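We close this part of the discussion by returning to an individual protein. Part of our work consisted of pairing the sequence of a single chain with a tokenised description of its backbone. What the numbers capture is local backbone geometry rather than side-chain detail. The amino acid sequence and the backbone structure tokens for this protein are reproduced below.
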Amino acid sequence: MIGPGFQQSTNRNSPSHQEDDVDLEALVNDMNSSFESLYTSCSVQTESTPLLHNGQPHRSATYQTQAQPTSPHQRLRRSQPMHILAVRRLQEEEQQYRTSSLPAIPNPFPELCSPASSPTLSSGSLPQCQPSGKYIIKIFSEDGMGKVVEIPADMTARDLCQFLVYKNHCVDDNSWALVEHHPALGLERCLEDHELVVQVQASMTSESKFLFRKNYAKYEFFKNPLSFFPEQMVAWCQETNGTIPPSQLLQNFLNSSSCPEIQGYLYVKEMSRKSWKKLYVFLRRSGLYFSTKGTSKEPRHLQLLADLEDSNVFTVITGRKLHNAPTDFEFCIKPNKVRNEVKELRMLCAEDEQSRTCWMTAFRLFKYGILLYQNYKIPQQRKTLLSHFSAPVRSVSENSLVAMDFSGRTGRVIDNPVEAQSAAMEEGHAWRKRSQRMNILGSPSPLHPSSLSGVIHRTQLWFHGRISREESHKMIHQQGRVDGMFLLRDSQSNPKAFVLTMCHHQKIKHFQILPCEEDGQMFLSLDDAATKFTDLIQLVEFYMLNRGVLPCKLKHPCTTVAL
């Protein structure tokens, strides 16, 4: 490049060098003409451009595009500010050298200074945001204890439940569920098996958490749909004026081309108010609507209450006092974008438990459709593959045990499942007889002053000790309210008695188990000594096979697990 210093030196030269000066100016003019197209293409009036000054980049220069005179010297000056790639590379290398030569100091004001504009920050001092594909999830049990697990981004709720069942040695009966719990809002819902846990956690607040517990009613409507969908609430049933077969009722809900409809009265809480209105509501695939004119279904009389696509249905667990609800059967439609804004929740209230269950189940069917049926059939197909095993599904810790026969000189493994089951039953009757004989002889038991049968029931999953009546109601309600769900607890009114709490037709009933004496021996009975049992285990086993005086057989034990 040619600078002003070169011009001064040429003026001081002798006249013999003037021809050389003319040739040099002509060469410079040729160079300027070659860059003419570059300057005409630039429309920016002012920009900062590095210049070469004595062979070094000069940073304080500012390139200004102005009308230049046509003299050779002026054209020579105009040729100086040029975009030279070598200068840019030199500038970048110098910037990197300055950055690497300084110590790595954490940036106290990241919002005011970026790494590119601050020479005091090194690239190694900033965190690298590289996705690892693993996420940390904390799961809580009903006793408040939690466990931290690391899961991939594509793990579903079913996969996580199977993982927790395996780790905690639970009985895998396909009734475990992951519950989304919002204590600040007083809401909770059971995640569907196909939902991604990481996506659900992204919409939760820091106070929200996941619970791991049983839910027997998750797919109960596939087994007994008529009990979940009363005919007076299904518009399709009313139009046909007849009883609908259960299979046809489910096909109508699962078929996307059909237009089923759930209708009935609901109490709707007004937005940002504490008052409730009783409205006639329609639930369709397109959303939840209410009629502005009685029970009219005309489109001009329908207004949208909630959308199904971007919302989920939750059960309200805080009770009717918090929202001043007219009944105890509250539920809520919560948009996915809502976190802690109570004003954005659509609070609803049904007349009874059956109506609330119908609305919430229909909401799930309308939103997920055939996916729910596929989730229901997956464990059924797995049971079909394992049908050649006659033994029931056992926990992981029990799978390492085998049945043994020590009646002869040497022990042998019992391979026949039928023989193994009969041997187990004989062993159970044998220890009961030994316990009774020890009580008659007055031999003390190492576990309890009275007998082993007086405390053996405390090791069972269905026994919950000294819990209150309200706590038993809450536990059964959380785990599904299906027919045959039961638990046993200590009686609060009689210290020597027990209480059987069970569910039938979504109603919770209590039966007191009283001790009775016969021939100097104590028994337990819940039908005024008509049927007597030596312990609670024998009583539960009997009523799981026989209905007796109960409204139905005992089917599903209400259990809790400690993570």
